[in-house]
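Board notes (copied after class):
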Amino acid sequence: MKQVKKRENGHLIQVELEHLKKLAIMVAEMDDLLEGLEAKSIEDFEKNINELTGFTNAIISSAAFAKEDEYKRLLELEILIDGKLSSENLTKSKELKSSVIASVIDKHTEYYSENEYATKKTLEDLMQTYNSLSLENRQHIAFNRSNELAFNIFSELRF
């Protein structure tokens, strides 16, 4: 069965997309910093700078090459981004890819289960049949004490 959309929470979609757009700016900044430091990742930068200085602490190594501010900013950005977005999730113009937007929309969309959808179809058919009756004919049926649809006690058709 093809999934049929029940509802989507537009507010949560909008909030998450706005958050990801803010993170995209941070990811772009992080990529620019890494490019300026001639590294592919923070770990790559730490490894390279420690090899150049012979130290084991990346903060001290970056301070020795006057790259401490850039390194600290990279660490701040890494904490702020928290793995929620990467440069692979962005287009060349540093916008969110359509696949990321689609996954956010899908995350906040609820679909009918097979049972719910079958029940919905049955009830829609039942309502359509009932509504196709004239007002005069509708008065012959009502719900009984057991909450079942039955002939009205005053209906002449029940005999």
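Comment from the instructor: The radius of gyration is 31 Å. The chain has two domains: 5-111, 114-158.
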